[in-house]
């Protein structure tokens, strides 16, 4: 049996007629950028995310850049974030001319640790970017408390966690400003690139909208050097249809994750830690095991795709060598990058596929017990 890490076609086929009708309507309208689909999508997703303002952008990376600029972050400033995230989180910080400062993560949730973050605050710190990694909310109360005491901005990287809740509130609208991506593989994915900024702050919303649109509020009159970072009508029309399904899809992800966790924890595999006060939307389903590379190779050999997120933590990336971090500086993130493995996870994953994957992990664990490595004397 072949099981992909994610199957985007299955989701498309389940909505094919609706999506093709929406695409046809946009094509017939003659309006392809900045039209009514984008306007309605922004209203609908603001309501979904419980944010006062939603501003669509060209992608999640731009959302982070625009959010940082709107908060006034630039050269000479430091922004603290996680080393265990997709590169774009730190890239955006460097792109606006600021310095990324990496603090270690929590060993249970893989999210940025509030304690480690506070220890890295300097007079130059301007903002913190907690990332809701793999779909699990970061400890927002702790970050908001730190932000208040040190007068910092909290910019949520919610690119992997749209729909997740923290103490009953949707992530992305809990901090000062939040960033979302509609890259096709995200929990709410378009059929191209797309992004969003969420905020309850009118001033920040105005700045983001200005910057995303060439620094202009009135056509051909410009107040700032901005960007061309907009969502298009086709993506907005598609995302409006898919947004209606997001809570249902996230529920299906959770059911599949619970099934994995129930079966795999009995085999001695490390499964995702969950908390009672937040929901996890399982953008990725990550297990932790010392023999990660062997298990990964074995699963691939029986047709099961796996993913390594993230093989090189950001403080050890070549491009950040100038920041002076070395191996051993952030041990929790480094250990996670060596031991975690993503298993297939998408709402349409079948019970048959899951049983196949679990049976092979079971086989691997049993063989491991029976065949101690050479040099082991038991
Ligand atoms: C996907 C992602 C981004 C970037 O989003 P794009 O739309 O691909 O630019 C940023 N941060 C995290 C955590 C992501 O997963």
Model description:
The chain is an alpha/beta fold and 378 residues long. It has two domains: 236 residues, 3-Layer(aba) Sandwich (Aspartate Aminotransferase, domain 2), CATH 3.40.640.10; 123 residues, Aspartate Aminotransferase, domain 1. 40% of the residues lie in helices and 12% in strands. The strands form three sheets. A seven-stranded mixed β-sheet has the order 1-9-8-5-4-2-3, sandwiched between helices. A two-stranded antiparallel ribbon has the order 6-7. A two-stranded antiparallel ribbon has the order 10-11. Helix 7 links the parallel strand 4 and strand 5. Helix 2 runs antiparallel to helix 9 and helix 4 crosses helix 5. It is globular, with a radius of gyration of 21 Å. The model has no long low-confidence stretch (mean pLDDT 96). Pyridoxal-5'-phosphate (PLP) binds next to helix 4 and helix 5. The site of pyridoxal-5'-phosphate (PLP) has 15 residues, from helix 4 and helix 5.
Name a few traits of the molecule.
378 residues, alpha/beta, Aspartate Aminotransferase, domain 2, 2 domains, seven-stranded mixed β-sheet, two-stranded antiparallel ribbon, 11 strands, binds pyridoxal-5'-phosphate
């Amino acid at each position: 049996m072949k099981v992909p890490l994610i199957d985007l076609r299955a989701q498309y086929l389940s909505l094919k007629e609706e999506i093709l009708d929406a695409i046809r309507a946009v094509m017939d309208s003659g309006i392809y950028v900045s039209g009514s689909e984008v306007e309605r999508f922004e209203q609908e997703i603001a309501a979904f995310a419980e944010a006062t303002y939603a501003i669509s952008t060209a992608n999640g990376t731009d959302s982070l850049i625009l959010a940082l600029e709107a908060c006034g972050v630039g050269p000479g400033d430091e922004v603290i974030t996680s080393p265990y995230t997709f590169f774009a989180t730190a890239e955006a910080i460097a792109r606006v001319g600021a310095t990324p400062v990496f603090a270690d993560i929590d060993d249970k949730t893989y999210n940025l640790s509030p304690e480690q973050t506070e220890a890295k605050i300097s007079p130059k710190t301007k903002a913190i970017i907690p990332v809701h990694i793999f779909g699990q909310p970061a400890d927002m109360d702790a970050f908001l408390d730190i932000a208040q005491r040190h007068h910092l901005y909290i910019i949520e990287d919610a690119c992997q966690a749209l729909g997740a809740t923290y103490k009953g509130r949707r992530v992305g609208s809990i901090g000062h400003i939040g960033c979302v991506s509609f890259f096709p593989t995200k929990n709410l994915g378009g059929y191209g690139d797309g992004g969003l900024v969420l905020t309850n702050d009118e001033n920040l919303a105005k700045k983001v909208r200005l910057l995303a649109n060439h620094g202009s509020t009135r056509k051909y009159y410009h107040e700032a050097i901005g960007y061309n970072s907009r969502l298009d009508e086709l993506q907005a029309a598609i995302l409006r249809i898919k947004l209606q399904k997001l809570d249902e899809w996230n529920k299906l992800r959770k059911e599949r994750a619970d099934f994995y966790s129930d079966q795999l924890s009995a085999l001695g595999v490390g499964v995702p830690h969950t908390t009672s006060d937040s929901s996890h939307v399982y953008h990725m389903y990550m297990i932790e095991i010392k023999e990660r590379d062997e298990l990964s190779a074995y699963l691939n050999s029986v047709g099961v795709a796996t993913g390594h997120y993230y093989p090189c933590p950001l403080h050890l990336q070549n491009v950040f060598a100038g920041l002076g971090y070395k191996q051993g500086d952030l041990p929790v993130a480094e250990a996670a990058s060596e031991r975690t493995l993503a298993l297939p996870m998408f709402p349409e994953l079948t019970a048959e596929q899951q049983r196949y994957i679990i049976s092979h992990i079971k086989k691997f664990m049993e063989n491991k017990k029976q065949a101690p490595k050479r040099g082991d004397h038991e």
